[in-house]
Amino acid sequence: MADVTTDYIKSIVFQLNDEEYAMPVDLVGSIERMMHITRIPGAPSFVKGVLNLRGVVTPILDLRERFGFDEQEETDSTRTIIIHHNNMDVGLIVDAAYDVIDIPKEKIEPAPEVVGSVQIEYIDGVAKLDDRLLILLNIDKILANESITNLSEAKG
Amino acid sequence: MEMNEYLDVFIEESKEHIQSLNDQILELEKDPTNIDIVNEIFRSAHTLKGMSATMGFQDLADLTHKLENVLDGVRNDKLTLNTEIIDVIFNAVDDLEAMVLDIIEGGEGKKDVSKLVNQLQAIENGDFKNDSSIEGQKTEQPEQKVTQATKSETQLDQFELTVLEQSKESGFNNYEITVELQESTLLKAARVYMVFEILEQVGEVIKSTPTVTELEDENFDYEFTVILVSKEDNDAIQQKIMKVSEIEKVTVLDFAIENQQTETSQETKKSSEEAAEQSSTAPAEKSNSDQNKESSKGQMASKTIRVNIDRLDALMNLFEELVIDRGRLEQISSSLRNNELQETVEHMTRISGDLQNIILNMRMVPIDQVFNRFPRMVRQLAKDLNKKIDLQVYGAETELDRTVIDEIGDPLVHLIRNALDHGIEMPEERVKKGKPEEGVLKLNAYHSGNHVFIEISDNGAGIDRDKVIEKAIKNNVITREQAASYSDQQVYQLIMESGFSTADQISDISGRGVGLDVVKNTIESLGGNITIQSTLNEGSMFSIQLPLTLSIISVMLTEVENEKYAIPLSSIIETAIVHKKDIMRAHNKQVIDFRGKVVPLVSLKNVFSVPGDREEDDYYSVVIIRQGDKMAGLIVDTFIGQQEVVLKSLGNYLSDIFAISGATILGDGQVALIVDTNALIK
């Protein structure tokens, strides 16, 4: 997942439910303000719908919903992070996205049993930088087959 | 590296020439005496030869060269065409194609063509028997004895004689030159090559003894004889040849033709030159007159440039974005009410409308691109099956979007194989039934509205309803009870269900387990549909309906609560406003009586669980859709209107959403979903 050749992982930091998360910057295509999202009937609840990203119809996932957090109204700081992964363009809705930092590899620890409120399977590890605790997300798991399987089931 | 640039051009043009060879040879088979067709074939073969030699594909060049020789023989009445010869020619063209394919895949276009070359050589020599074991016969069979003025070893065939006569008439001298090499010569072939170089400069070599191949293989002693057509005189030629080292002796004698032939060929000059090429290794330089002839032919073709399809796709994508922005601009200008802005936007709208037409048209290609390989295929299949087939193609100029063209080939091949194998009967059987021995397979393509129709019809056995039902029951596709209520049309549709094959015997041609269901699926995935009409013992017709283009479709935009859904116009019969009291219930489902038919109603709001609680009024807006002979009415809240939209996929992540076939971007930048009506009817 992470870039192995350097000692740092350049990551985008974003906020979700008052916790800070990080994901490698090379996955990220762009960060967008909220736009009109068209609901997709029959898709799982965490798939908010699709939006028109400069002519490309892009599916949007709500990470809050995915992680089982409470719903929250959109704010001025709500952003969609567009990631490109496994030939798929997918947008993730987060509460805010504001920082790009280098996370030294040695600072990354495996996820403890209880970390924040996110189910452990979506987490690659945690990094403690000064007084910040960053949760590294496993994009594969978030987008994983399970979600697509859910989709196929939902279509029935 | 520079070669790479030309390689693409070479491949494209080679493909075209091979296709043209195929087409013309088929024509020729029907009309073997038509010299125009032979000329046409000759021209293609000749160009192909030149191109491949330039590109360094020697095997390709060799084979075309031999092919050309045979054609030349035909052209000059030396050879009479028969099926065997045409078969060999076809084989040769197949090999050429295989080599070109190899080149496309990065190979060197190498292939063992010696057997074919030998066969062609044998044909050229006029003693071809349809015997694949013919080994290269190097010795030429004389058709006409010639009395030579000097030596009598050299024997010329009629064609070569004609050439000699004609060159004599046009003021050339014919020489018989005997060259003797020194016995110490090490590289005999090299010396021979140098001699030939000189001879090519002063004139044209008509014939050599031993043959050029033997000379190249050093398969001779120290002496060889050539017949040369030249304007230079005796001594000059002799001196020039003597400049090559290790030459012992050169004798140049006038060559007289006693046996005057009366045959004439139309193109004196040209044939003498090409005859020269026959026996010389290096392709002789073309004279200006010849080149003019060829280039004037080329100019008659329309002016085109080749553009990579990717670039057209990129253009299309950019244009699609422009269309979306145009929609936005229209909205802005209408809300701002600024005159100048409105005028400009209107103008832009018109221009981009024209632009859209042009871009769409650029992607259109005639269906001939798919059809053109069928004559060959049908001929081969007919031979394999021992059936007699007359293939008739209509509407090959009908244009279709490139993407559709790419996809439609395989299904059509399947249908044609099916028609030949299962449809058209064996000749004896046809005679018994009182039909002409030769079965007719008709391919017809035409435009109608926003669709292209392709029909494949045969006058064969037709579909046996009972047989189909039996089979379907046996294969558990339907039950016996169901079968009784099926209409003929429904029964015919059964043969396109998966796990169905009506052939009693599984043959090589079709019915290898993958049935017509694959065809049906492919066509439906292209947004088209296929219907079958059939009369027992009179024939069947498979009719395919396809959208003109896959990327831009006409839709009816509808609104359900706050969501917009686009329904493809192609599946809509009409829209209707239905009063609540007209809705009936049958089997616990809502149905309406629509022009005497009972049509079930489907509420889009329910299917797509659209949130919202708009109050129901007494009238329903219903879109009547059709799939095959089934209909359904979709209840929506409001009709917005008809619109041309750009079809977009939902992406890999959302690949399988029920009843949604894709999405489109509306003028305001929002995404609207396109309803897959087929899924709603089933």
Automatic annotation (TrEMBL), chain A:
PANTHER family: CHEMOTAXIS PROTEIN CHEW (PTHR22617:SF23), CHEMOTAXIS SENSOR HISTIDINE KINASE-RELATED (PTHR22617). It comes from the Bacteria. One of its GO terms (biological process) is signal transduction. It comes from Pelagirhabdus alkalitolerans. One of its GO terms (cellular component) is cytosol. Gene3D superfamilies: CheA-289, Domain 4 (2.40.50.180), SH3 Domains (2.30.30.40). SMART domains: CheW (SM00260). This is Purine-binding chemotaxis protein CheW. Residues 8-148 form the CheW-like domain. CDD domains: CheW (cd00732).
Automatic annotation (TrEMBL), chain B:
GO terms for cellular component: cytoplasm. Its EC number is 2.7.13.3. CDD domains: CheA_reg, HATPase_CheA-like, HPT. SUPFAM superfamilies: ATPase domain of HSP90 chaperone/DNA topoisomerase II/histidine kinase, CheW-like, CheY-binding domain of CheA, Histidine-containing phosphotransfer domain, HPT domain, Homodimeric domain of signal transducing histidine kinase. Residues 552-682 form the CheW-like domain. Residues 128-143, 287-296 have a biased composition (Basic and acidic residues). One of its GO terms (biological process) is chemotaxis. It catalyses: ATP + protein L-histidine = ADP + protein N-phospho-L-histidine. It is an enzyme of class 2 (transferase). Residues 300-550 form the Histidine kinase domain. Residues 1-103 form the HPt domain. GO terms for molecular function: ATP binding; phosphorelay sensor kinase activity. Residues 128-150, 261-301 are annotated as: Disordered. Pfam families: CheW, H-kinase_dim, HATPase_c, Hpt, P2. The modification Phosphohistidine is found at residue 46. Keywords: ATP-binding, Chemotaxis, Kinase, Nucleotide-binding, Phosphoprotein, Transferase, Two-component regulatory system. This is Chemotaxis protein CheA. It comes from Pelagirhabdus alkalitolerans.
